[in-house]
Fold these 2 entries.
Entry 1:
Amino acid sequence: MKQDKAFVKEITPQSEDFSRWYIDAIKKAELMDYTPVRGCIVFKPDGFELWERIQAAMDKRFKETGHRNAYFPMLIPESFFQKEKEHIEGFNPELPWVTEAGGEPLEEKLALRPTSETIIGHMYSQWIQSYRDLPVLINQWANVFRWEKRTMPFLRTSEFLWQEGHTAHATEEEAREETMQMLEIYREVVEQELAIPVWKGQKTPSERFAGAIDTYSIEAMMKDGKAVQAGTSHYLGENFARGFEIKFLDRDNQFKYVHTTSWGSSTRLIGAMIMVHGDDRGLAFPPRMAPTQVVMIPVGPMKLREQVMTAFDPLFDALKAAGVRVRADLREETPGWKFNEWEMRGVPIRLEIGPRDVENGQVILARRDTGEKVTVPIAGAAEAVTKLLEEIQQNMYDKAVAFRDEHSHLEIDTLEQLHAHIAACESDKKPSGWVLAGWCGEDECEAKVKEETKFTSRNIPFDPPVEKKTCITCGAEAKHTVWFARAY
Amino acid sequence: MKQDKAFVKEITPQSEDFSRWYIDAIKKAELMDYTPVRGCIVFKPDGFELWERIQAAMDKRFKETGHRNAYFPMLIPESFFQKEKEHIEGFNPELPWVTEAGGEPLEEKLALRPTSETIIGHMYSQWIQSYRDLPVLINQWANVFRWEKRTMPFLRTSEFLWQEGHTAHATEEEAREETMQMLEIYREVVEQELAIPVWKGQKTPSERFAGAIDTYSIEAMMKDGKAVQAGTSHYLGENFARGFEIKFLDRDNQFKYVHTTSWGSSTRLIGAMIMVHGDDRGLAFPPRMAPTQVVMIPVGPMKLREQVMTAFDPLFDALKAAGVRVRADLREETPGWKFNEWEMRGVPIRLEIGPRDVENGQVILARRDTGEKVTVPIAGAAEAVTKLLEEIQQNMYDKAVAFRDEHSHLEIDTLEQLHAHIAACESDKKPSGWVLAGWCGEDECEAKVKEETKFTSRNIPFDPPVEKKTCITCGAEAKHTVWFARAY
């Protein structure tokens, strides 16, 4: 098994260097490649297909809840950013600017959108006149730009792909319902389709979206214990409505500002999926997201291959007919090499079939998530595969929940204890994970945690495992119970 | 019928001013809106949904022929454009440039992609080493930029949406087959789904894509007689392979340049669909593309509405269950207003149902394409609707073919005759249409036609209705038979 060893050496073990493992795994599996453009990656076909599946899962739910897609210009005039003060402060340092076009300097420079509240706010001010025009429920799939200093493939790149929903409502109540509805859709997609458990909660004021009244997020734990913000939903109040004069004549004949929301999720979900489910063998995809769900590999001596194929081909067709995303690997490489290859690429089920299996009317199903093998009759194999895929989906979610809970620390009450916890984890080379802490609500207390430990507040969970009583920094009475963690 | 008159006045008749008609119709139907960003439009939900349907029809066929989607950076370093000489000459005048980002000037300025041969060529040079890596069959859905002087919604905008396929092959033969295969897919989608007849053919050298060996196109006639290039497919030979050093080790152990192709279609197809099928009542969509295929409108006195709804609701459900995109208009406006409204929005079938219809167990189907009304039994209405939708699809295509052929002129042999033809059409206020002309193959003869008449060569059709014998300009023997027309 010389190939085997060579193979394993190519991916750095997670425990040795998690970031290196991540880069090794996604490069080797050909999900992405670096480019000569600073901080921009290529989404190669296997990486892009993951995004297509995430898109389909999200888009379906957006449409079911009455949203429609539209497309707004990518270039945003500089003056638009001035109309919401916090917004420009938040995004200005990260903007790339077009200053010349068609051989001439522009009169007003144009930003590459970091998000589209401004241009969409401007258009809404022209489209909305009356309560009859409300609500406006629009989503956009688009590329956006944030010129980040430090980048990480999928998780943080200068250009990325996302969806941004932008809605306008007659009342605060309705806008707040929308904000929560979309957060719940994110939770559902990420938990049910990507098999990633998340905490729904509210961002602290210091972590709010630039220009929002309230920001809510779903937060997920990676296998190195760090957090990824996997989706955000903002109640923007009248902030953008006032900046862009989005007013309507209400039923009571009064002109009023609309209440707007925005909500976004992005290609960083690809990165999260890899960091939650991958292991030292490489990637592992939950069946609902996997580009290939089952790889069929014939085994046994070549001279008996023809016999094997008489059972192989009809089974391939049967799986396809059952709606399974199946792929046959008939290349000349050894079965051992192929097993490694498809494990590394994260395929949930490997189906092995050799001459003896054909004689016995059976096949072997090998699970990527547990490594277990089961033997099933060929006759009912399609059904068995379909069932096993659902079982794997559930098991991957359950495993992620168990990992998360194991690395969630509920007993840390002071900064000293947090320091001690981090030191202990570092000496044991274990993830320091997340810490549930009380917080008095003062910005300085939150900032001090970050300053001293690099743990930042993730969110104030709606439904925390316990309620904390005292502020982790000052010891005063806690107003909120907050997840703190290092984050991507 | 006061509303009726007011309504008709809002859309300029096609015969009076076709461009005004176009803008009036798409604005009134809320397909798009202008923005403060020069030459950029908003694709509003009803416009964007057309693009989603075009995307789905194309993407399905791309995948069936073995292509996969990927995503490459939008920003392209200036130096990349230098690597293919004709390419930079062709695109340089139209490029917008990012010159600063993150608060600092860039060392090398970055173009907003007008097309992606360069960045993709660069990546392919790293991915392709051996004949085993070929072919590479990748497509990208993306926004692109061409800073045009004169813009027209959907047909020519500074930013637009498109797909661009980029493939690399071991041999010229295979690359040329790919070029033709994709041209055929464009023809199929545009004729079968958009109900627009096209001529497949080759572009003359002066109209070739910048950097291509051969460019092929499908060309469609609008209702004002002008042409729209509805899709192009390029055989690029080794041009980009040499510029970007895309080489592979072949089976014969020789390093060789790959042969590449590229092919694209864009949101201008939305504009073409409107200009081919629309009329003085507004838009008209072929059933396979229509966001709404059937609008159901209850008629008759309000006091009998309840009775109508007992038949209306189950029929709505039955149509939905049959896979029809159906919409019910239960607003308070008069039936007459609604009829106009949905005709203007291009819905193929209006389904009317009143108290007497319910008594007689029937409904009325009114066709957008012919204005005809037919009465069908409620019991079989879903089936009748499905069948009628197919009939309308075919009829709209046939009508477009008849219009095109009527405005295709095969008998014009000299520039003098062309001048006379144009003058006659102008005095009759008729579209001058297309002219099939002989061409000797000299650039000057082609240029002279354009200079004198604004008719440009569209393509050299593979299968012209007749073969022309002499050059329209110089009278020498014709090497090619060419479609000439004014074009968008």
Entry 2:
Amino acid sequence: MEWSVNRESDKPIYQQIFEYIEEKIAYGEFPPGSRLPSERKMAEQLNVNRMTIVHVYDELQASGLVERKKGSGTRVSTHKWGILPKGVTNWRKYIEGGSFLPTYPLIKRIRDEAKVMKDGYNMAGGELSTDLFPASFLQASFNQHAFPSNLGYVHPQGHLEFRETLASYVKEYHDINVTSSSILITSGAQQALYLITQCLLNPGDAVAIEAPSYSYSLPLFQSAGLRIFALPVDAEGINPDDIVTLYRKHQIRMIFLNPTFQSPTGGVMTEPRRERVLEIAAELGIPIVEDDPVSLLSFDGKTHYPLKSIDKSGNVLYVGSLSKVIASSLRVGWIMGPESVINRLADARQQIDFGLSIFPQLIANQFIQSPEYPKHLAFLKQELLERRNEMVLALNEYLGDKVEFSVPKGGLFCWCKIKQKVDDQKLVEEAIKNKILFMPGSVYGSPNGYVRFTYARLQREAIKEAVLKFAKVLDKV
Amino acid sequence: MEWSVNRESDKPIYQQIFEYIEEKIAYGEFPPGSRLPSERKMAEQLNVNRMTIVHVYDELQASGLVERKKGSGTRVSTHKWGILPKGVTNWRKYIEGGSFLPTYPLIKRIRDEAKVMKDGYNMAGGELSTDLFPASFLQASFNQHAFPSNLGYVHPQGHLEFRETLASYVKEYHDINVTSSSILITSGAQQALYLITQCLLNPGDAVAIEAPSYSYSLPLFQSAGLRIFALPVDAEGINPDDIVTLYRKHQIRMIFLNPTFQSPTGGVMTEPRRERVLEIAAELGIPIVEDDPVSLLSFDGKTHYPLKSIDKSGNVLYVGSLSKVIASSLRVGWIMGPESVINRLADARQQIDFGLSIFPQLIANQFIQSPEYPKHLAFLKQELLERRNEMVLALNEYLGDKVEFSVPKGGLFCWCKIKQKVDDQKLVEEAIKNKILFMPGSVYGSPNGYVRFTYARLQREAIKEAVLKFAKVLDKV
């Protein structure tokens, strides 16, 4: 709810709120029979005293606009779900249908909190802090070029010029050989994974993902009706032999890997394991989906080349994005793989959204070719390295005897095992009370007692404070 | 295939093509066992003599890279689909899976032709010609504003400022009352329809669409497993009583309507029918999805207000977009409806693509508020009116005794009934031979013998030529 009370108005606050709700009822935005937020919640959302809302709801009831019943809250009159009168759609029945599962409650809880929290410490979401976005660089390189005069539908696989640039880009940065016709531009890596799970797999299919992994937190695997099996991750990545075991037992049809600076563990799969994984997958004829969002953010000067760069069998679908190296709101990602697969995904994608807007493609195309881009990358790595150092210092100082962790050599995340026994849900709630956000390991498929901290979102000074605050929260639970 | 032969190179053409294919095989873009295009097709795609390709394929076979068999074409060696050896993914099995139906062959045929056709007459696709896009206006209003410094993920429903602008926009142009929290920004109307069919309906549900209608041409209804029933359209739109009949017979759960300048017929539903449709839908509790892409493009000064503007029960989900009034490659559309529905769709949408890029939203936000926007609309309407007049003149002159049509009072399309008996498929193929593209009525659910012409894509002079050419094609079949 983004409307807010105008405190400078002559109109009393309760009157403003009354009219706001009345209007939403009249517009059909709160349809007959729907439930209004509780008084407490509405008061919080609108940042007013609870008694004001009690007053408003009383007035709404008096005017016949809502009905109130003990235990079932305040509802828009005069209709109730279940015994719905004629004249209105039972929207709840529609909302509960469809094939999409809702976002996991704990993740939704943290995301919702992140939206409203003021003066808090966000170590949860995997994105960069505002000052790390190259907004002025982007604008400068964009303004140098005229908009193309043809703004008609772009090619189903994405803007051709940009795909050609990307082919050179992945050659230069990742040693991947690909031509423009084997690239599909997507709305970030999220859409890439959505298309792959929806178009290349069938409900009931078995797939393997790393445990823990970011993939585990995505309801899209479940929404697609897939059965998920775990490839446990250790300090060297997954164990290639586990693929064989899963294949024999469950006939897994696809493997999802994030080999470099993995989310959430921050780990890097070793080279011998990479080679072995490719060998095994090729031998079994199982495709690998390689998610590679942050491999450019290496702190020790070492380059980690993707599986795709050493795959000669065409078994790897390579998924990348600019979300973590430029900006998440750009929404530019890609899939690279066999032409026949790319064509199929591009055709399905036309049905979903008719392709990505040309503008983010133009902006990305100009920026990644500009001399500013390598400068930006160097700046970004240096900043993240300093923040990581700050976090490592703070973890050692305030939590040295309470957590175990490896120092991440790149990426955005630090993964900690809490030595004491702890309930993830309680830890999250206590942390929220203290204005700290982090991601609990359980949403990534870990047992309770692991946490993923992002150092990319907080300034250096704030990282120290946040870890200290977290230490106090941990003492409490 | 976008690679092309370099005719200025010293390297022989067949050698260039050989290396191109060799590279694609090496990269895994043509995986082992996959079939290469036929010699004829490859020659066409690369715009070379067929004998050159015969030579290349001979060389590829000699080098062991491909295998050729009578009747089954040329395949990358040494593996075949079906009896696939170890070491490679059987991609075909994956491509044929998933829940997405491919685009209808006839539509794909026309779209593919549109991509490669040079000096032809495109009266098929529903988009504007290059000169009608306000590229310089867009750029000017965009460059006046600094990029926002925060380029992190935007709100799941879309950029707040843009949603607020849109709320005023639909009030001003369509007399629709809505607040920003009841708006979801989508990637065009296509994504709006995708989200609604995927998230609010279940496989097996019955829905009603206009006959003929653009919706009929969308495989997304079938992909979602919906059963589709017809609401025949006459000169006044659909007949409201048909809704009751369909409801009794099939328990239809949703109605899809395009009341103003409908695609493909160009017709407008009359006001009494609009009121009656709303009454009936409300009485039966069936939601209406109102698709309204072109109602602003009225030629006779008359404003046609959407169903949504007179709906007080919250039964209408209103779908709009800027594709036909600004540019299709902007990819900006929206759904407006009850907050609970919008929240559900926004949550599902996060799983699909994590939201629309902020840049098209910023560009649209700035342009539709600028004084240039009404000027652009006026220019666009005038241009389209002149092109419509040109088409009507040409139809009367060259096809007066062979087709029947109503003069469209707005929008992009002219819908013609051919008096003689004709096979749509044959007509399309003969037209393609003569470099003319149009949409046959059968893809919209009409019987054979109807055609949809777009006058938005051709310059005035070209319209006359195109209709004359079409008349000649019609004579032939």
